[in-house]
Amino acid sequence: MTSAARAPRSLVWAGAVVFVLAVGLVLLMVVRPSAASPSGGGSAGVSAGAPAEGSADVGFARDMSVHHQQAVEMAFIVRDRTDDEDVRRLAYDIINTQANQRGMMLGWLDAWDMPKSADGPPMEWMGHPATATDGALMPGMATDTQLDELRTAEGRAVEVLFLRLMTVHHRAGADMARAAAASASTPEIRDLAGGMARAQESEIALMADMLEARGAKP
C-alpha cells in the first residue's frame, strides 16, 4: 500500500470519534427526560415509554445493527485491498455512516432497557423469520464463503466483488428499513429507517455506475 493510500486512515479515526460522540449524545438525549419522571429512577423512567419486545422498533434496531456490522467489515476489507480512490471513498462513507447509525441503534436499545440480541431468529418482527445460510444471518448478508473470497481478491477483482456484495446487502437493508419506517412506533426509528432506505438506494445506483465503469454487472 502506498503512503497516499495510507493517508486517509486518519478519516477512519475521525469517524470513530464521531461515532463515540454520537452514541453519547443519543444516550444523553434519550435518558435525560427520565430524571424528571415521578419514579426518579433512570432506567425505569426510560423503559416505561419504551417500545415492547417484539416491536418493529426493537427488532429493527437489533437486526440492522448486525446488518450494518457486516457492511462495515466488508468496507474495511476492500479499503485495505485496493488503491482505487472511488472504491476507497465509498468504503469510508459506509464505515463512517453505518458505524454511526449502529451506535445510535445500540444506544436506543440500552435506553429502552432491551438486550442487544433476541432468543428468536432475526426478522421475526417483519413476519418472516430469517434462516442462516453459510454464516449469512439475514437476506442480503454475505456468506462466510463470499467473505473469504473478498479477503483474498485483489485489484479489479476485489472491487467488483465488493460492489456486487454491497449492492445485494444494500437492497436487503433498504427493504428492512422501509418496513421499519412504515411500522415503527417511535419517531427516532421511523426517521432513521426512512433516511437509511433513501441513502442506500442512492448508493445502489452509484455502485451500478461503478460496476459498469469496470465492465461488470451487479
Features of this protein?
218 residues; mainly alpha; 8 helices; 69% helix; disordered N terminus
- Which descriptor suits the 3D outline? elongated
Strand content range: under 5%
Rounded radius of gyration (Å): 18 Å
The portion of residues assigned to helices is: 55-70%
Average pLDDT, all residues: 84
Order of helices and strands: HHHHHHHH
pLDDT below 50 for ≥5 consecutive residues: which ranges? 1-48
Number of helices: 8
Report on this model:
The chain has eight helices and no strands. With 218 residues, the protein is mostly helical. α4 runs antiparallel to α5 (85-111) and α6 (144-152) packs antiparallel against α7.
Q: Quick recap of the structure?
A:
By secondary structure, this protein is mainly alpha-helical.
Element layout with pairings:
Elements: H1 3-6, H2 9-31, H3 42-48, H4 56-79, H5 85-111, H6 144-152, H7 155-183, H8 187-213
